[in-house]
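Q: I have 369 residues here and want to know how they pack in 3D. Can you give me a structure?
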Amino acid sequence: MKCPGSITILLAALLLSSSALAAHLVINREVPLSPRHHPEPYLITQVSNGAFIIAGSSAPGPGYPWAVRVDSNGKILWEYVDGPIGGVDGYGPLGERFYGAIDLPDQQTLLCGVKPANRGRVALLIRIRGDGSVVDKRQVDPGRPDGTVSFIGCSRWGAGFAIIGTVSGRPKGTGWLVKLDAKTDFVWQKFADYYSYGDVVEALHGGLFLISGSNHPDVTSVVKLDSAGELVASHALPADSSDWEIVHPVGLRSGVRVAYMLSQTRTDIVEFDDQLRGPERTWRLHDAGLKAALEMTDGSIVILGSQWHNAATASIAVTDRNGGSQNILLQPAYTSPWFIAAVPSGNPNELVTVRQVNGVATLAWISIR
């Protein structure tokens, strides 16, 4: 394991386009996250003061919801586990985790997860202070007979927040949308087949874009909701595609970009307008797996995922504004199957990523030059 502050330069790159785009990957710094607990991260969120929140589960198998907040250099500010490590209360053995983390005013953090309850599972909302202490813990129950929450995500939404998930039950499951106000208090909830959590971003003028798989068992779509949660538009994604992610933009957009895998050797990025008409533009990438997608400040799009070289191997695909693309394979191969998530660091052409390295959750600052 590299010690914090060490610099490792990886120059192995596979040029997969005739474009003049030239880039290499530089790992500027790597920091292990809680090696004592061996957590399994699921997401990373950037906060306003340059810090980062990483959240997921306290263990790869049976575990409790886990989160950690680090400063801009990777120093741990606080770590929170919703349950005793190794304890037995009918919660941890289910392998629960946090599915969302949002930065709040006064250095507080909103963590969103799923927790077992008497008759199923409910959404769990926890607010954490800047010192790691708990402000409050609340459960949001969909209140449907036999309804249990499968998984959720949370997102900023105008002056408040949204919880998006799926509720199972009889006669069939359905999508679930909850509106929270600026204080994270419950405002209303709605149920519809086109609500389901795959990936979500806030849209310009108060709406939401999300990936929905609930409207038909064999169809995945990108949908747009207005500020009241009503359906504005829907666009079905190719039936032969898998692993869908929204390209998370630098700022709010009226339209949306979606990345999806058509095969192990092809991933497309498509751009839709504010009514999901199009695609207006398509980028085609080769040998680019898909775990996360985001826009950089220079307008390029970065796809994090893996290539298959006898085993999954972490890679980053980069596209520029002109459509040129390059796929950078992380070396040495096989030590990290894929990048889990990433956000821009705030520095030009630099990402902060989270991944597993030899079983240890690791935070890394990566420059693409």
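Q: Anything worth noting?
A: The first strand starts at residue 8 and ends at 10. The CA atoms of residues 182 and 193 lie 26 Å apart.
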